[in-house]
Amino acid sequence: MNGAPGPAQYPLLLWPQAASHAAVHVDWLIFAFTAVTLLLTVPIFLAITYFALMYRSGRQVDRGHTVDRNVKIELSWMLIPFFLTLAFFAWGAQIFDVEQHAPANSLEIQAIGRQWMWKFQHPGGQAEINDLHVPTGQPVLINMISQDVIHSLYLPAFRVQMETLPGRYTQLWFTANRPGEYRLYCSEYCGTDHSVMDGLLYVMSPRDYAHWLSQAGSSQSLAALGKKLFSNYGCSGCHGVGATIRAPDLAGLYGRPVPMEGGGSVIADDTYIRDKILNPDNNLIAGYKQVMPSFKGVIPEDELMQLIAYIKTMESSS
Amino acid sequence: MIAEPVGIELVGHFATVSQQREAAKLGLWAWLVTELLLFAGLFLCALIIRIQHPAAVTLAATHLKFWIGAANTAVLICSSFTMSGAIALSRIGWRAGMLRFMLATAGLGTLFLGLKGFEYYQDYVEHMVPFLAGPYVLARDQATRLFVDVYFITTALHGVHLITGVSILLVLTWQASRPHFLARHQNRIEVYGLYWHFIDLIWIIVFPVLYVLNR
Amino acid sequence: MRDPATPHGTIGQPSDYLHARYTLRSWFFTTDHKRIGLLYLASITAFFVLGAIAAGLIRLCLVVPNGQIFTNDTYNKLFTMHGVIMVWFFLIPSIPSTFGNFLLPLMIGAKDVAFPRLNLLSWYVFMTGALFTMITLILGGVDTGWTFYAPFSTTYSNTYVIPALLGVIVVGFSSILTGLNFVVTVHKMRCPGMTWFRMPIFIWTLYATSLIFLLGTPVITLALILLVMERAFHIGVFDPRLGGDPVLFEHLFWFYSHPAVYIMVLPGMGVITELVAAFAQKRVFGYKFVAYASIGLASITFLVWGHHMFVNGQSQLASTVFSFLSFAVAVPSAVKVYNWTATIHKGNIRLDTPMLYAMGYIGLFVLGGLTGLFLATLAVDAHLHDTYFVVAHFHYIMVGGTMLAFLGGLHYWWPKFTGRMYPEAFGRVGAFLIFIGFNVTFFPQFILGYLGMPRRYHVYPPEFQLLNILSSAGSTILAVGYFFPMIYLIWSLWFGKRAPANPWQARGLEWTTSSPPPPHNFAVTPRVDFEPYDYAIKAREVG
Question: Could you give the angle at the alpha carbon of C11 between the alpha carbons of C10 and C12, nearest 5°?
Fold first, then answer.
C-alpha cells in the first residue's frame, strides 16, 4: 500500500470521516433516507412475521371476511411511498447540482490517471504522485483526464468521485474543512494494479498548504511551463505575435465561443483546446484555412495541461 | 395452370391448424423484432458518429459506391415483389408458378450479393478498408474510419442475413418442388416470406442512413 | 374441472415423462419441455458450482488485506469469471429456463411450448456459449470484469477477451429463442377458458421476462460484436485515439444489462407469488395490480440504464432524468411486496421449506431494492458508486432474492418434477443456514462500501480487514447451507417419499396432473372456468 499511518488507525470505524460540509450534507441525506426506509419496511417485516405466526395452520382464529382487492389501498401504497421517496430524489439531485458547478474562484489542480498511478499538478507547478495535498476553506477543482483506460478518482472523505476518461476532461470539486489524512482511490476497474492505484489525501490549513507548496520543489507555475512549451513546440510560430501565417488569435480564447465552418459555434474549453492540438482537422473554424499540423503522439497529457494552463492566461489585447 | 390442394398438416402439440399457423407467424414476428433491434444499434452508432464527426462522415460517404447501392436497393425491392408473388401463388396452389417466383427471388438475392461483392472489391482496390493492414486512402482524417468501419459491419451483417436467407430459400424451393408439399406445409412459404421482406426492409433503412444522408 | 381424479400411482396410467424412456438419445434429442427444463437444471447447477468456487476463492483471498493468497491478475480473472458465469450461465437462465420450461405449458393447460424443437435448440445454443466460456477458462481466463468496459477490454487487456465475448454473444441467442417461444406459447397455446386474467402470476412474470429477452438481448449482442470488432480490427468506435467514445459502449452495454437484472428478478417474483398463495392457501391480493406491475416493470426497466453512469461524465440533465426514472421503477416492485404481505394476512399459513424461502426472499429483496434506491439518489451514488455497497446491493437482490426464489420454487415443485418429496427437516435447516450465511456475508459489505472500500480490489487498506473477515466467514456458512439441498435433493431421487399429485393442496393446473406428469401433461385437455388461486372456496369448505 502507498499509505502511511493515518486512516489505518481506525480499524473499528463504522462511519467514514467527513472532511467537507458537502460530505456532511450527504450524510444527513443518508440518515434521513434510512429512517424513511425503515419506516416503510419494518412494518412489512413485522407484519409478515406476525401473520405467519398468528395465522399458522391449525390455529383457531378468524380468517373470514378477507378481501382480494381494494383499489384505494393499492393506489395509496403505490403512490404514497413513491412521493415520499421522491423527496430524496430531489434532495440528492440538488446536492448533485451543486457538485456539478464549481465556484469561479476554485483552485484548479490538474490530474492524470494512468495505469496504475495518479499524477497531480498544482497551479504553481508542484507535482505529486498518488498523494494529494489540498488546503481547507478554499474550493478546489480537480480537472482530470486518463492517459489510457477509464479510471475514477474517488475521495470518500468528500463523498465524491468522478471517472477519468481518455480523450476528454472531467472534473470534480470540493471545499475541505477538516485537516487530516484520508484515503484516495481509483474506483473504476482498470487492470492488474487497480487496487494499488490509491494514495493519501492530505487536507491542510491554508498556512500549512502554502508551506508545503514552497517545499514541494517546483520552480515554475503550470502556466509558465506551458509558455515555454508554447515556444518549444512551435506554436508561437503561427499563433504568436508577428507570425506570417494567419492563425486564430489565442488571447482571450478560453471560455469564449468559436464560430465553426459549417455554422454554429463551440465553446473553447479544456477539451476543445486539447482536441484542437491533437486533431486540428476536427471542428474546422470559420474563416481560416486549416494548415495546423497534428501533435498527436508528440505532446504527452501533462504537457497538454501545461499548455492549456498557459493559454488560459493569455489576456485579450483589446 | 394445375391447382394443387393447399393446407397445413397439424403437428401433435397444437390443438387446431389455425393455432399452429398463428403461432408460426407470431414466432417469426418476434424473431424479426429482435433482428430489428440488432440493426437499430448499428444505426444508432452511425447517427452518433455523424453527430460527433460531421465533416469526416461526409468525406467518407463520398467514397461509397452510391450507384451500386441504389441498384442493389432496386434489386431487393424487386425480389420482395417476386416473393409476394410466390406467396400469392402458394395460396392458390399453382406450384410451378410459385417455384419460378421463388427461384427468381433467390436469383435476385444472389444478384444483390454479387453486386455487393463487387462493391467490396472496389472498396479494396481504392484502399477504403481501414481495418485491414495496408494503405488507407483517408488516413489523414482518422475519424473517417469510424464511419467506414460501421458501413462494413452493417452491410456485412446484412449480407450474412441475406446469404442465410437465400440458402434457406433454395432449400425451401427444393422441398416445395416435391409433391404434396403445398397440401401439408403451405404456411412455410408465407412465414418465410416475412423473413425475406424483413431483409429487404433492413436494406431500405441501411441505404438512406449510410449512402444518402451523408452526401 | 377443479379436482379431477388424481392418480396416486401410475398403475393403469401411461408412464410419466421421467420414466417413459431411459436412453441417452431420449434425453439429448427430447422435444419434451419437461425434459428440456431438467437439462437446463443440470447445466445451470454445474455452472453455479463453478461460479461459487470462484466466489469462495475471492472471499478467501480477501481475508488478508495484502493480497498474498492470489496474484493480482489471478484475482482479477476470478471476479471476472464469477460475474460472467453467475450472470449469464446461472442467474439469467435459472428460473425461466428450468421452471419456465417445465411449468409454463402445464400452468396454461398446454401439451408443450409452441416450438418444441426450437426449445431444444435453445439448450444446445446455451451449451455452445458455455463451451466458449470454458475454453476461455482453460486458456487462462479473462480479466476485464463481466462489464467488459472499453478501452481496457479492447486495447489493454492481455487475456482471452474474444472467446469470452463469443461465449456471451452465443448464449444470448439461447435467451432470445426461449423468450420467443414463451411469448408465442402464452399468446397462442392457452387451453380453453384460460383467459389472460386467469393465468397464474408466475406466467405473467415469465411473459414480462420474455419481452425483455426479446427487446434487450439483441442490443448486447451488437455491443459485444462491436467489442470483438474493435479488439480484432481496431474499428475505432470505442477508441478516443481514433475519434470514438468508450462511453458509447457503456450506453449500449447497460441498455441491455439493466433490463437483464430484471430478467433475473421478475421470474423470482412470480415464484414467490405462487409460494405465498400456496402456503397461505389464499388468493393473491390485488391479482390484477400484480399482473400489470409485472408488465410495468418490464417496460420502465428499459428507461433507467443511465443510473450506472452517473459519474462517467454524463450530462447532469441525463443523470437527473435517469435518477427520477429509477425511483419510478421501484414502484411496481413495492406493489408486489405489499401484495404478498396482504395475501398472507388471514391466510392459513404453513411454514414448510418453500414458505421459509419465500419469507426470507421478501425481507432480503426489500432491503436489496431499497439500497438500490439509495444508489439511484444522485448525491449518494457519487459516494457509493463502484464500492462494496453496490456489491452488497446486487447480491441482496440476486442471492437474497433470485437464489432464494429459485430454491423455494425448486422445493415446491420438486415433487412435480421428480415424483419425490424432499426431507422437510433438512430443508428447513438448509434454508436457515443459507439465510444466516448470506446475511453474515453481505451485510458487512454495505458498511465496507459506505466506508469507502472500492470494489474489484485485490488488496485493500488494513482498516477494512475486520469486516472482510466477517464477510468471508459468512460465506463459509453460506457454502455449507448450499450443500444441504444439493445433497438431500439428489438423495431424494432414490430414497425420498413418493409424492401425490398435489402434496401442498395448492391451486393451479400443474397440480391437477400426476407427479411426475405424463409425457403430454394432461390425460384430458383442461377446460378452465374458475379464477386463479381460488382458495377461498376451499377455505370456506374447510370452515
Answer: 110
Set of chain B residues whose Cβ sits within 8 Å of the Cβ of C189: 13-14, 19, 23
Residue showing cell 475519424:
B143
Binning pLDDT at 50, 70 and 90, where does residue B1 land? low
- Test C459 with A166 for CB contact under 8 angstroms: no
C-alpha grid cell for residue C120? 431444444
pLDDT in tens, C120-130: 999 999 999 99
pLDDT of the residue at A7 = 67
Structural domain C30-511, CATH architecture: Up-down Bundle (1.20)
User: Among partner residues C112, C184, C525, which is closest to B30 by beta-carbon distance?
Assistant: C184
Give the A:B interface size as CB pairs under 8 Å: 12
Cα A232 to Cα C523: distance, rounded to the nearest angstrom: 90
CA atoms of C33 and C106, how far apart (whole Å): 10
Position C539 pLDDT exceeds 70: no
Of C184, C235, C243, the CB nearest to B26: C184
| HEC string for B13-37 | CCCCHHHHHHHHHHHHHHHHHHHHH
Q: Give the integer Cα–Cα distance in Å for C313 and C318.
A: 10
* Domains of chain C by residue range: 30-511
d(CA C33, CA C91): 20
Chains contacting A with at least 3 CB pairs below 8 Å?
B, C
Query: Would the CB atoms of A282 and B55 count as touching at under 8 Å?
Result: yes
Chain A residue with Cα closest to B56: A282
- Write down the mean pLDDT value for chain C: 92
CB contact under 8 Å between B140 and A284, yes or no, is no
The percentage of chain A sitting over the pLDDT mark of 70, rounded to a whole number, equals 95
Residues in chain A closer than 8 A to B140 (CB atoms): 281
Answer yes or no: do B145 and C243 touch at CB < 8 A: yes
State the complex-level ipTM: 0.91
**Domain boundaries defined on chain B:** 33-212
B53 near A CB under 8 A: yes
Which CATH number among 1.10.357.10, 1.10.730.10, 1.20.120.80, 1.10.3720.10 corresponds to the domain B33-212?
A: 1.20.120.80
Specify the pTM: 0.92
pLDDT at C37 over 70: yes
Q: How far apart are CA A120 and CA A118, in angstroms?
A: 6
| CA neighbours closer than 13 Å in the CB half-sphere of residue B146 | 32
CB contact under 8 A, C313 and A162: yes
Q: Do A262 and B54 touch (CB under 8 A)?
A: yes
Beta-carbon contacts of B105 under 8 Å, excluding residues fewer than 6 positions away, are: B79, B82, B83, B86, B169, B196
